[in-house]
Structure formats: C-alpha cells, structure tokens
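The instructor's notes for this session suggest beginning with a concrete chain rather than abstract definitions. Hand out the sequence below and ask the class to guess, before any prediction is shown, which regions might be ordered.
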Amino acid sequence: MQHGEGPRLVAPLLAVLVLSSARRSHDKTHLEVRPTFIRPCKINNNAVKAADAVFAMRGRTTVVFHLNVTVSRSVARWSKSTAVIEQCDQTVSAATCSTFRTFEFHDICAVMMSAAMPWARVLASIRPKMSCPVTKGKYTLSNGSLAMDLLNAVSGPLRLEGFVWRALSQAVDSRGDPHICLDSAGEFFRVRNRPKVKGIDGLASDKA
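After discussion, reveal the predicted structure:
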C-alpha cells in the first residue's frame, strides 16, 4: 500500500459501516409521508392556476391524496427546473424554515418521468395522462400515494422525522421565464413493517 492510500480506503469503509448500521436500526420500520399542502407558488406567470388537494388515511399507515390541478398554458420545452428544499420547525413560515438543499436539473423530463422516483406512481395515475413538458389542461388524481422505496433506501443516516419539509419546485421555458411552480410540504413518520405470514408449507414444516 502506497503512502496516502490508507486514509482514502478507510473513509469509504467507514461510510459503508455507518450506512449499513443505520439501515439495520430501521429494518423493522419504514418511512411514510403525511402531506401538509400542495398549492401553486405565489409568483408571476405561474401556469398552475389551481391545485386543490385532499388527504386521507387508508388503513392505519398509508396516506392517500386526491388532487385537481389546472394548468393555463403550454410551452414547447423546459430549459431548466429547480427544487428548493426547506427544513421547517413544525410549521411553514419565513421564521421557522431554512434552506436545506437546492437542486437544479437540465434534463428535466428524464428526472420527472423516471420510474425510480417517488412520484412515478402519482404521475402514472393522473388523468388525462401527463406529458413532459406539462401542457394546458385540467388534471385529476384519485387515491394517489408516493412510492417511498427510494427514500427508505437512503434515509438511514438522515434525520427526516420531526420536521416539516417544504419543496418549491419550478420549471422554466426556453426563454428562462417561469412556466409551472408548485409549493408543497409534508412530514415523514415511521411505521412498523407488517409481519410476514407463513404459508401452509411453512407451517407444515414447522410442525414436522
């Protein structure tokens, strides 16, 4: 091993150990999200004119929501999108929220339409089918829920519970003017995984 290689090898190893131990501590639970609101951003030229959302519990742990969104105009393409994530202390306000991270995307449609993203199941359920960029029209979602697999996979070392998380998501057209912008917020909470039920074969083998 050459001089200087030790620290470079130890750092990734420590990261793996931290991640694996954090995930093991949550093996019996998983994250769910409780939306607080979904609404149009208060900016000029926002094509999202209405976003009426209703949230409800399905069973004891799953949150579902119904959404009606009105988009007033179409654009030929999006040149960029940004998502500003804020961490808020219990309520959403200028006094209680601080910027956690800002993301910028140029290949927007690839991100938006990716099947791996938490919102993929939501987009697939919207009627009429949503395109990228989003075109003028009225869109409806019934019994929507976010797929939490990706967040559960990376949430081990992150402290997501106990805060309200706000996202200001905006897409701009080829001239750099705002097209659509949504202001949304929600809380993460953990629920216990349902115990796996043994099949008939498993019960028979246990008795044997």
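Then share the key points. The helical segments are 5-25, 108-112, 120-125, 149-154, 200-207. The longest strand covers residues 178-192.
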